[in-house]
Specification:
The structure holds three protein chains of three kinds. By secondary structure, chain A is mostly helical. Chain B is an alpha/beta fold. Classes of the chains: A mainly alpha, B alpha/beta, C alpha/beta.
């Protein structure tokens, strides 16, 4: 187990390293010109561009900039020269090109928002989706199954940016029966947090529940046709024991996989969700940073998203070993 | 077979499934009986209705999907009329089942011990500890070494033969009166196959249970069964004692089955003759005798009966031996005699 | 000055061309927006006559919370970095005072006044503009109560030369230190700030190598906001600065909210512009355009005292415009932004061909694309309506979708090669390009080849002299209210360099260059303003270097309880100096 974790961590670090190099390279190879961006929509004179580039450290060769960025993560660094230098302790992700604020501080502000959305909606989607999927698999062909299939189809074809905006428009602004989406730290105002997060949670939760429902239903139907379920029934077990102890237990590993990967990938999807609900999380931050050619923030958000994907992959693998005795981590 | 009180009696069983393509007549009027201590072999290709029949006896068909008529009398009770809760008492307790592939038939996430304990606890109000003792006893009985240790292992940690032994231990944990073994040895290699069959016979002698052995392998039947039922297209085509059916088969389908099996005593170079064509569709059975399109001896045209009338299962001269075939009995006997003169299929 | 939306979207041109409305637009008189040519174009208060304290606003009351809904935090609130319109408007209106300031007209079309803010007047020069003297008012204080001295103003100006001003405007610094050697007081410790010095506690003197008439305007940027050297913290400067205005920071959570409360050390008797009516001002930075519109439309709870920073969302424009109750709460009018299609003067040499192109362009399509006539109206002039001296004229009268017959007539007997239209390769840029192509190719009068340019290279490419674009779209907003900041930048041929040009038509006419030089050097800016208006018309009538396409309009909502709000013609925002919350 320990060996496995060490090996996976190493692979994860290499993955992240490759992603960081690619992002860095793409940024400069692609259409990014932060200094010109900061000049606004006017042709900047060369002197001003140069001064901005110098202040951002963009005049050095790319590999040097990359080296500085990476070493900053591990050892921290000073940004700027002489008396103007800003201390940026490890793990230093640089400072925002736009506001000169340490990127880590910016990320720290956005992460609780994104995490709140991700975890809350994940809980709703799993509870709702899995139970609906299983119930419909057990009552195959019944009204619940028909409803569930319709729900899964509708959910899969609806997009968060459509449904989200629609619900906001109708529930929040027209009927005024739902609190408008906003983030307040749960430590400050727990009820306000619940209330402000509720619409994103429900929307995203219900939409992803559709995926879970479809998946859980298919998985459960497959498991129900497995020989060992027949065996369980042949033993004379009650339907409840057959469905839960035997069938559900067996479909758990695939459901956990999907759950883990989805949770890991939620940060990647946060861009759309957070833009839709106007939540100041990592996703919205990333969207703005890309538009602004704000490299340090782009790097940080990409790495963070990749980190979570990698992390949840490891977690899912570990969960596998817990759930399925046939799997050994090595 | 004409016993007054057979443990299991199946009378004119019909099982039909409604599908989008039409009605599947999986079992179409089959009758048979098994006594305690005796073994009935049911033979047929896949799709002949043998597995459906066995699942009907276990009451494992979804009643909403499968239309079942006739009678299945287990110890005198017709289980087709039993409510689900009563059925559960029968399952695993009075009638239990051994499946073909123990790897897929055992739950991969639970230990062998756990699964046997579970089977015991369903029907016995005893402590877990006692059930476990019983499970280990059974594992020991079926010949698994170090049973206490093995009980805590998962199915994937067992070899194929050991898994099937464990499966048998699980089926027998409640001393069932009837054991249905559905191709229990198909997934195993030949030496292990023999051991498992020996074990089954052994246990049968010990518990005096009735066994239904479902297989497509006539070799297995000849080793273990007392009576045989040959099924084709959901119908019984020939039935009788092993002795009479194997030595003096009268149905062309049975001949086909016999000539497609390598003989243990025959010439290694002897040709195996597979039956031409494919098993029939159960939605659209051939008219008349279901076997007629594949039958070398079919009497067709000019009002001859093979594709017109379904042949009745009729007793032949030999006692307890019935055949459903339009060919006159004498002709059947002669034809078979000539056939074995050429190939020596049956020893 | 940068426009927030433009700054974010980089493709000003894209927006500018996309920024425009409805074929039904018939009000080419711009609803009387912009300067009224019968009144003074601009007032420069050299004598310090502007009354202090600023006269009370009728009906105003003290108290309440003003809520400002904004999509995203300000890029900078540290004064010397501020260059985007919203930050200038709210920053200088609420907490950053400056040496000089604009007193914007409450009634649209009235003159903008340049007045002394921390200084007693708009600046005094005795040598034609090389030396400027500013005397500080008595009683001005920082929020901690310490008096604001000339030294603090000089330190603040010094910061604008270095890293802490690199993203801000650079006019004064470039004029005072053309080689840009000085790196600001944090690096070049103890060295004098080029061209800026304190004489005693009360006087700031600006000395330049050449006369510059725009100095009083340049100092309205918060580069001249005073900073106490002893309290300067380079790592926290963005969020922890001393206020000199009526409000100070109570709580600032980046990207989330900023709450201001009253600054007890601000004395209205020292301030000719600002008031201090609301108890608190709260910025909510996480409200996008759609939600701003929805919330202020509903105007319930705290949203009743809310200002939407963004224009009304496109999908709600029609609803708002059709509802008289809502439209009462709309702050709308002309902005400094005008849009053009530049015709390369070296490549399209025949003036009648350029005139024909003017007739061919379909302004109605551009306006429709922008979202209708609430947010864009057809333009005929070079200077936007809010530029002092703006003269309303139409050198080429035609219907809103052009006059193909007139163009054909002008083109009789002429043959023109296929024209290349360069555009930034974004969604908006592509839409604008489609309109250009469709307009000019009507009746096969012209043939247009479209040349997309990557957004990274766009301004570099079109700003390069000798580029191969015949036509290129652009938008412009003045940096200070003076014709010089439009005509003087865009149409002075003597400024053309090899790279980094803003004169995208490469217009270079000696007579116009000479006229621009003369106007630039006039000390009387009020008189100069009128002359710029005449020059605008002359350029368009005789030379036609660009096709004026649209003026961008402002169209935003305020809540039912917001009083004293009016449109800032300079920053295209709600002016908050007179704002109050109704009971």
């Amino acid at each position: 187990m320990l060996r496995y974790l060490i090996k996976r961590s190493l692979i994860a670090v290499i993955t992240l390293l490759m992603i960081s190099i690619t992002t860095f390279w793409l940024f400069f190879a692609g259409s990014a010109n932060p200094a010109a961006q900061m000049c606004g929509a006017k042709a900047c004179d060369a002197a001003k561009i140069e001064r901005i580039n110098k202040s951002l450290g963009l005049k050095d060769p790319i590999h040097e900039q990359y080296g500085r960025f990476m070493s900053g993560i591990f050892t921290g660094r000073e940004i700027g020269e002489g008396a103007d230098a800003i201390k940026c302790p490890a793990p230093c992700l640089g400072v925002s090109f736009r506001t000169s604020e340490p990127v880590l501080d910016i990320i720290e502000r956005g992460l609780p928002v994104s995490a709140s959305i991700a975890v809350g909606s994940a809980v709703i989607s799993v509870l709702l989706g899995v139970s609906l999927g299983i119930a419909s698999a057990l009552k195959r062909g019944g009204w619940l199954d028909k409803f569930s299939i319709g729900f899964a189809l509708t959910g899969a074809s609806l997009q968060i940016f459509f449904l989200g905006l629609l619900l906001q428009m109708v529930l929040v602004y027209q009927l005024k029966i739902w609190d408008r989406p906003r983030y307040v730290p749960p430590s400050e105002d727990f009820l306000g947090w619940l209330s402000g997060m509720s619409l994103p949670w429900v929307t995203l939760g219900v939409l992803s529940a559709a995926t879970y429902a479809r998946f859980a239903r298919a998985e459960m139907l497959e498991i129900l046709s497995e020989d060992f379920v027949r065996t369980a029934r042949a033993k004379g077990l009650t339907p409840r024991a057959v469905n839960i102890k035997h069938a559900l237990r067996a479909s758990l590993s695939s459901i956990v996989t999907i759950f883990g990967l989805q949770l890991g990938g939620l940060l990647g999807g946060a861009a759309i969700t957070e833009t839709t609900f106007d939540m100041p999380g990592i996703g919205k931050l990333a969207v703005k940073a890309v538009g602004d050619d704000n490299l340090p923030i782009v790097m940080a958000t990409v790495l963070l998203a990749a980190f979570f994907v990698v992390l949840f992959n490891v977690i899912v693998d570990a969960m596998y070993a817990v759930i399925d005795p046939r799997v050994k981590l090595s | 077979m004409a016993d007054q009180n057979p443990y299991l009696q199946v009378k004119d069983l019909r099982v039909q499934f409604k599908t989008e393509d039409g009605v599947v007549k999986a079992v179409d009027g089959v009758s048979f009986a098994v006594e305690r201590g005796k073994t009935l072999g049911i033979v047929g290709e896949s799709g002949s209705g043998k597995s459906v029949t066995s699942l009907s006896i276990m009451g494992l068909h979804n009643r909403k999907r499968a239309a079942m008529t006739g009678e299945i009398l287990v110890d005198g009770r017709n289980i087709l009329n039993l409510p689900e809760e009563k059925l559960r008492e029968v399952r695993g307790q009075q009638v239990s089942m051994i499946f073909q592939d123990p790897l897929s038939a055992l739950h991969p996430f639970y230990t062998i011990g756990h699964q046997i304990v579970e089977a015991h606890q369903v029907h016995h109000k005893v402590s877990k500890k006692e059930s476990r003792k019983r499970a280990i006893e059974m594992l020991d009985r079926v010949g698994i070494p170090q049973p206490a240790k093995r009980a805590d292992q998962y199915p994937h940690e067992f070899s194929g033969g050991m898994r099937q032994r464990a499966m048998i231990a699980m089926s027998l944990v409640n001393n069932p009166n009837l054991i249905i073994a559905d191709e229990p040895t198909t997934a195993l290699d030949v030496t292990v196959q023999a051991q498992i069959l020996d074990l089954l016979l052994d246990l049968q002698r010990e518990f005096n249970s009735a066994i239904i052995m479902i297989t497509h392998d006539l070799g297995v039947i000849s080793q273990i069964a007392d009576d045989v039922l040959v099924m084709y297209g959901g119908r019984a085509v020939e039935t009788g004692t092993v002795e009479s059916v194997m030595r003096r088969p009268q149905h062309p389908y049975t001949w086909g089955l016999l000539s497609s099996v390598p003989s243990l005593h025959g010439d290694a170079n002897e040709d195996l003759v597979p039956i031409k064509g494919n098993p029939p569709s159960l939605i659209n059975l051939p008219s008349g005798c279901a076997f007629n399109p594949r039958c070398r001896y079919a009497m067709l045209g000019d009002g001859r009966p093979c594709d017109l009338e379904i042949p009745q299962l009729l007793q032949v001269q030999e006692r307890g031996h019935s055949v459903a075939c339009h060919l006159p009995e004498q002709e059947r006997v002669q034809t078979y005699q000539q056939d074995i003169a050429h190939s020596g299929v049956a020893q | 000055m940068r426009h927030r939306v433009r700054a974010l979207a980089i493709s000003a041109l894209a927006i500018s061309l996309a920024a425009a409305g409805c074929s039904k637009t018939t009000n080419s008189d711009n609803k009387g927006e912009g300067a009224d040519s019968n009144k003074k174009a601009i007032v420069v208060d050299k004598e310090g006559k502007t009354p202090v304290p600023a006269p009370e606003v009728e009906g105003a009351r003290k108290g309440g919370q003003l809520l400002i809904l904004q999509d995203g935090d300000f890029e900078h609130l540290s004064p010397q970095q501020i260059y985007v319109g919203d930050a200038i408007n709210y920053g200088t209106g609420l907490f950053h005072r400056t040496l000089t300031a604009y007193k914007e007209p409450v009634k649209q079309g009235d003159a903008i006044e340049v007045v002394g803010d921390l200084a007693t007047n708009a600046g005094v020069t005795t040598d034609g503009g090389k030396t400027w003297k500013f005397t500080l008012r008595d009683g001005i204080k920082f929020e901690d109560g310490s008096p604001i001295t000339a030294k603090d103003v000089v330190f603040g100006l010094g910061l604008s030369y270095g890293k802490f001003g690199v993203q801000g405007p650079q006019y004064l610094q470039a004029a005072a230190d053309p080689k840009r050697e000085y790196q600001g007081p944090t690096v070049d410790k103890g060295k004098p700030v080029p061209g800026v010095k304190a004489e005693g506690d009360k006087t700031v003197v600006i000395t330049l190598e050449k006369p510059e008439q725009a100095v009083p305007y340049w100092l309205t940027y918060p580069i001249s906001t005073p900073v106490q050297e002893s309290k300067f913290n380079n790592e926290k400067y963005e969020t922890e600065f001393q206020s000199s205005g009526p409000y100070k920071i109570k709580e600032y959570k980046r990207d989330s909210h900023l709450i201001l409360d009253r600054n007890p050390n601000w004395d209205p008797k020292t301030d000719p512009i600002r008031h201090q009516y609301p108890d608190t001002v709260k910025f909510d930075f996480s409200v996008n355009r759609q939600n701003q519109t929805q919330r202020v439309m509903a105007s319930t709870g705290e949203d009743a005292a809310a200002i939407a920073v963004s224009d009304v969302a496109q999908e709600n424009l029609a609803t708002v415009a059709a509802d008289p109750e809502l439209e009462k709460r709309v702050i709308q009018g002309a902005t400094p932004y005008a849009n053009y299609i530049n015709m390369n003067y070296d490549r399209i040499k025949d003036v009648d061909v350029r005139r024909a192109l003017v007739f061919m362009y379909d302004k109605s399509a551009a306006i429709k694309n922008a979202g209708g006539n609430k947010v864009a109206v057809p333009s005929t002039t070079l200077m936007a309506p809010v530029v002092p001296g703006y003269k309303k004229y139409d050198a080429y009268p035609m219907g809103e979708s052009g006059d193909v017959a007139k163009a054909k007539q002008l083109m009789t007997g002429k043959k023109v090669e296929k024209l290349t239209y360069c555009f930034v390769n974004t969604t908006n840029g592509q839409k604008a390009a489609a309109i250009v192509k469709a307009s000019f190719e009507r009746d096969n009068v012209f043939q247009v080849a479209l040349k997309p340019i990557d957004r990274k290279d766009y301004y570099t490419t079109i700003g390069k002299k000798g580029n191969d674009c015949d036509l290129v779209g652009s938008g412009w907003g003045q940096d200070w209210p003076d014709g010089e900041s439009t005509l003087g930048v865009l149409f002075d041929g003597t400024l053309i360099k090899d790279e980094g040009n803003n004169n995208y038509s490469y217009f270079n006419e000696p007579s116009i260059n000479a006229e621009l030089k003369k106007l630039r050097e006039m000390t009387d800016r009020e008189a100069a303003a009128k002359a710029y208006g005449e020059l605008d018309e002359k350029i368009m009538k005789e030379f036609v270097p660009v096709i004026p396409t649209t003026y961008t309009r402002h169209y935003s909502l305020i809540g039912t309880k917001v009083g004293g709000a009016f449109l800032s013609p300079l920053y295209s925002q709600v002016n908050v100096t007179r704002i109050f919350v109704k009971a």
